[in-house]
Design brief:
Strand content: under 5%
Oligomer: single chain
Radius of gyration: 21 Å
Structural class: mainly alpha
Low-confidence stretches: none
Mean pLDDT: 87
Number of helices: 9
Largest sheet: none
Number of domains: 1
Order of helices and strands: HHHHHHHHH
């Protein structure tokens, strides 16, 4: 029990230290900016293809299943609220988080662990460079920004994919289709989607960084750190997703 609480206090303290470093990030040199740009390139740009394909497929699947089912009850207009609920509010933030966990959580954790094993982190400390501000903060910002942007693109392409399929059932003009979608896209729904994406980005980056820095001296710990970061990030994202969805329903 004591170890559990020590771990909680350590993670909370580490998170607070990273947040403190975020405020002073703009005063750092070009090296920190380069790490941030490379992290966004790997986490957002390189993941955009698979996220787009997945979004289009889900949007099409919801339309293919939803329109015939709702038509049987003469409730075709409900497809728009259903698309917003599934793509924008629920699956968009969660699936983009899963994509980033699979790609970036492992990469960050193994990279951090490799730096610890090779004494690179100690080298930064010895020359007066804070490893949290130089290593952790750019990756924290990069993953959080990337998940936020990836969630937006997921919603756009998912709704666009649903429109392409919907034309086979009801040949509505694009202006009418997306007009109905905008009517069902409320501000609370948009805010909860954004909140989830930012929260998941913070969780994924923090879990990956802390798991990577927690290794000791054996090189065999590097892949273990990657696996542990994936499992922990998945679990925490699912728990936070349930809590935020429940909070949204309670306040709606």
């Amino acid at each position: 029990m004591g170890t559990f609480f020590n771990s909680i206090f350590y993670n909370v303290g580490f998170f607070a230290r990273v947040l403190k470093g975020v405020w002073s990030f703009g005063r750092r040199g070009q090296a920190a900016y380069k790490i941030l740009i490379m992290q966004i390139l790997f986490t957002f740009v390189e993941a955009l293809g698979i996220a787009t394909l997945l979004a289009i497929a889900i949007g099409a699947a919801v339309t293919v299943v939803g329109i015939p089912f709702l038509s049987a009850f003469s409730q075709e207009r409900l497809i728009y609220s259903l698309l917003i609920l599934i793509i924008t509010r629920e699956l968009g933030p969660l699936l983009t988080a899963f994509i980033i966990i699979a790609r970036s959580a492992t990469a960050i954790a193994t990279e951090m662990a490799g730096m610890v094993i090779s004494h690179e982190v100690e080298a930064y400390i010895s020359v007066g460079v804070d490893p949290i501000e130089y290593l952790a903060v750019p990756r924290f910002l990069g993953v959080t920004i990337s998940l936020f942007m990836l969630n937006i693109f997921f919603s756009i392409f998912g709704l666009a994919g649903s429109y392409v399929v919907a034309r086979f059932f009801t040949p509505l003009p694009a202006s009418v289709f997306f007009g109905y979608l905008l009517e069902n896209l409320t501000l609370p729904t948009l805010l909860i989607s954004i909140t989830k994406s930012i929260a998941f980005g913070m969780i994924i980056s923090m879990v990956a960084i802390t798991r990577g820095l927690a290794v000791e001296r054996a090189s065999t710990e590097i892949p273990v750190a990657g696996l542990k970061s994936v499992g922990a990030a998945f679990g925490w994202c699912i728990v936070v997703n349930v809590l935020l969805s429940a909070l949204y329903v309670m306040l709606a």
